Structure to design on (87 residues):
């Protein structure tokens, strides 16, 4: 992954984190900063997974890559929320 790919993953990660938070039902006990961090991590891992499955570079919008990233962000937000609830 090149520098421009990392920068775009960070920007997209912010959006992915918010979308992932919206997918998780109920109220989350984590702040927006944690949501953004989870989104950035989900975007980076999702891009790597999409590349491994060969769906990262398609003609047009990469819907499968976006769905992978949003799913990972939702899992990350839910996991972090549960870990915060246990404390």
């Amino acid at each position: 992954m090149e520098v421009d790919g990392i920068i775009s993953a960070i920007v997209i990660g912010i959006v992915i984190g918010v979308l992932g938070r919206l997918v998780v039902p109920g109220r989350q006990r984590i702040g927006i900063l944690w949501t953004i961090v989870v989104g950035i991590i989900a975007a980076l891992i999702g891009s790597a997974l999409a590349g491994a499955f060969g769906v990262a570079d398609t003609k047009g919008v990469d819907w499968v890559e976006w769905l992978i990233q949003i799913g990972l962000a939702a899992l990350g937000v839910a996991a972090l929320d549960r870990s915060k609830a246990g404390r």
